[in-house]
Specification:
alpha/beta; Rossmann fold; 2 domains; two-stranded parallel ribbon; 11 helices; 8 strands; 40% helix; globular; Glucuronosyltransferase; quercetin 3-O-glucosyltransferase activity
Length: 294
C-alpha cells in the first residue's frame, strides 16, 4: 500500500546484498540468485519507501524472525494475515469429479500418502518411475495428482484397477490435505502447498523443483514438519532411487508427525474468530478504510 513519504524512509539504496532471502540448500555453499529474480527483488526493494503497509501471506509466529527483520528495515506496517488458504467448508463438491474424496472416505485414518507437484513443473519421466516404484515397495494406499500426459510413465501396477492407490488428473487439494485418511504428503514446496500442508498438520517430504521452493522446504524443515529431498529440480542433479524415497517417506512419518500436528493446530486456531490471523485481517481492513477515507 502506498502512503509513505520517500524522505521519511530508512531503506538503504540497493547494493545487491540487501536481500532478506538466500537461495541455498540446507547445508552447503550459497547458490547464485537467478538474474531475473534478483532484478525483481531490486524493483521491489527500491519501491518499498512508497509502502504504507506490507501484507504477507504468512503467520507472524511462524516467521517471527523474518517479520522482525522486515520491520527494522521499512517504515511500513507489516500485516501477517496468512495462511490464506481455501476454506474446506466452502468447497464446491460439484467441481470435484475425480472421485478423490469418495476414495479417501473408504481408507483408514492416516493411512494415505498424497503426492502432488503443482500445476507448473513435474519431475522427469524416469524420476516419476522411481517414485512409482517407491509406492509399490511401501504397499501403502496413495493418492497421486498427476497430469494425464505423465500417466504413461507410471508402472503398470499403479495404473490397474486393483492398485491400492488412485491417480487423478486433478484433486481439490485443500480438502484432500484436511481429510482424516491422509497421513503423509509428498509435494514440491510451492508456497500454496506449503501453507496448506502445514495448516492441515500433515508431515511432508518436500521435493523442490524451482523458484523459491527450496526456501519453502527449509521453512518446513526448521519447524520439524518436513524433510527435504536434496538434488531435485527442473535440472536435477541426480536420479533419486526408489529405495531412497522409501527411506525418506518412512523417516518423515516417524520424525515429523509431531511437529506438523503442533503447527497445524496453531495455524487452524489462528484462522478462527479471535485468532491471530483474523486479528491481522481486521488490522488490514481498518487500514484500508483509513486510507480510503483520508
Amino acid at each position: 500500500m502506498a502512503g509513505q513519504d520517500q524522505n521519511q524512509s530508512n531503506i538503504k539504496p540497493w547494493d545487491g546484498s540487501a536481500v532478506f532471502f538466500e537461495l541455498r540448500p540446507l547445508d552447503g555453499p550459497q547458490a547464485p540468485m537467478p538474474d531475473k529474480l534478483l532484478a525483481l527483488l531490486r524493483v521491489v526493494w527500491e519501491e518499498l519507501h512508497c509502502a504504507g503497509a506490507l501484507i504477507l501471506n504468512s503467520h507472524w509466529e511462524a516467521e517471527a524472525a523474518l517479520v522482525a527483520e522486515i520491520e527494522k528495515r521499512v517504515n511500513a506496517e507489516v500485516i501477517c494475515c496468512g495462511p490464506l488458504i481455501p476454506s474446506v467448508k466452502c468447497s464446491d463438491r460439484t467441481t470435484e469429479d475425480s472421485g478423490a474424496i469418495q476414495w479417501l472416505d473408504l481408507q483408514k485414518a492416516g493411512s494415505v500418502i498424497y503426492i502432488g507437484f503443482g500445476s507448473l513443473v513435474t519431475p522427469a519421466p524416469e524420476q516419476l518411475r522411481e517414485i512409482a516404484k517407491a509406492l509399490i515397495i511401501l504397499k501403502k494406499p496413495f493418492l497421486w495428482s498427476l497430469k494425464p500426459v505423465f500417466h504413461e510413465h507410471l508402472a503398470s501396477e499403479l495404473a490397474c484397477k486393483e492398485s491400492r492407490g488412485k491417480v487423478c488428473s486433478w484433486v481439490p487439494q485443500q480438502e484432500v490435505l484436511m481429510h482424516k485418511s491422509v497421513g503423509l504428503v509428498l509435494h514440491h514446496g510451492g508456497w500454496g502447498a506449503t501453507q496448506q500442508t502445514l495448516t492441515a498438520g500433515k508431515p511432508a517430504l518436500v521435493w523442490p523443483m524451482a523458484s523459491d521452493e527450496k526456501m519453502a522446504a527449509k521453512y518446513l524443515v526448521e519447524k520439524g514438519a518436513a524433510l527435504m529431498m536434496e538434488g531435485t529440480g527442473v535440472s536435477a542433479e541426480r536420479l533419486v532411487q526408489a529405495e531412497e524415497i522409501v527411506k525418506a517417506l518412512v523417516d518423515v512419518e516417524t520424525t515429523c508427525k509431531e511437529g506438523a500436528e503442533s503447527w497445524g493446530r496453531k495455524l487452524r486456531i489462528s484462522l478462527e474468530d479471535g485468532g491471530a490471523s483474523q486479528i491481522e485481517l481486521e488490522r488490514l481492513a481498518n487500514l484500508v478504510t483509513k486510507v480510503c477515507c483520508s
